[in-house]
Amino acid sequence: MTQTIDTDAPALELPSLAVDGDAATYLEELFTAGVQVSGPALDEPEALVEVELVGPHLRVAGSISLGRFRRLSDVLNHHEGLLLLHDATVLRRNGTPTRVTTPGIWVNPVEVTLVGQPNPDQQHGAPPEFRIVKEQRELIVVTPGHTLTGHVYIPMGAELAVFIESADPAYIPVTDVRTRSLADRRIITRYPFALLNRRHIVAATELQAGMSSSSRVL
Fold first, then answer.
1. Tell me: domain 17-112, CATH 2.60.40, correct?
2. What is the pLDDT of residue 128?
3. Are 24 and 90 in contact (CB under 8 A)?
4. Cβ neighbours for 17, distance < 8 A, ≥ 6 positions apart
5. CATH hierarchy code of domain 128-206
């Protein structure tokens, strides 16, 4: 995962970039006030994947257990209830860590827009017998908290409209993801791989020839 500030914006030093509605602001205030923000001491699973969970009002880094699954997408698309994040650190909107850390925090995956995976090599791909030949398509997506561009993969010959309109899977694998915060357009984040919560898609369209370059975020 890489973090940048848009060079088109005025050059100035950014403070925490937290605004009203950003959970990091309030959690760090609790920490400063001496309130213990901590989770239980947990036995660490063998297979952990480093992730960032990003929602409209919360951004947190930690690790998710793959359990019996091989891929992070399978964990999210088959999980019921709250999702346990190990060794978690609450982040400010711009991705810088706060002082709020905990051995474990439960997060409602329904409220998570994007699950970024900075190190996609940590997980195994699908076995060869289950692999489907797919073609790459580049999308522009608007969510409640971000605009983003990235590549999705659909079966050869399939219609992109059917893929977008489908309700399953709940989380869509996306590569070469570039996001811009709607709360502060100077905040741009990149992930080599991420899972997008399709329930948070406000609008989506395919990036056509002549539209904004794929090296930029709208």
1. no
2. 56
3. yes
4. 92, 93, 94, 184, 187
5. 2.30.30.100
